[in-house]
Amino acid sequence: MPKKSWSDMTPTQKKVVVAVGIVEVAVTTWCVRDLKDRPQELVRGPKILWGPALSVQPFGPIAYLVWGRRR
């Protein structure tokens, strides 16, 4: 399936793309702030490695939320 350009998308498709982008930015921002404020003892693995991992969209933030934080 060939890639669609923005002008080829329907208005509904454009809204979905924008909504997903907003959610992605919000979750990543939440994860970055949580990582910054959370003590090292409550983070699985080195915090310095989680920072760059959060930039791998969308897997980094999801991995941090599921596996990176200790309760």
UniProtKB/TrEMBL annotation:
Transmembrane segment boundaries: 48-67
The keyword Plastid is assigned to this record: no
Cell location: Cell membrane
Main location: membrane
Origin superkingdom: Bacteria
Pfam short name (any one): PLDc_N
Keyword tags: Cell membrane, Membrane, Transmembrane, Transmembrane helix
Cellular component annotations (GO), alphabetically ordered: plasma membrane
Lipid bilayer topology: Multi-pass membrane protein
UniProt domain Cardiolipin synthase N-terminal: residue ranges: 29-69
InterPro entries: CLS_N
Coiled coil regions, renumbered to chain: none
Protein's name according to its UniProt entry: Cardiolipin synthase N-terminal domain-containing protein
Species per Swiss-Prot/TrEMBL record: Nocardioides glacieisoli
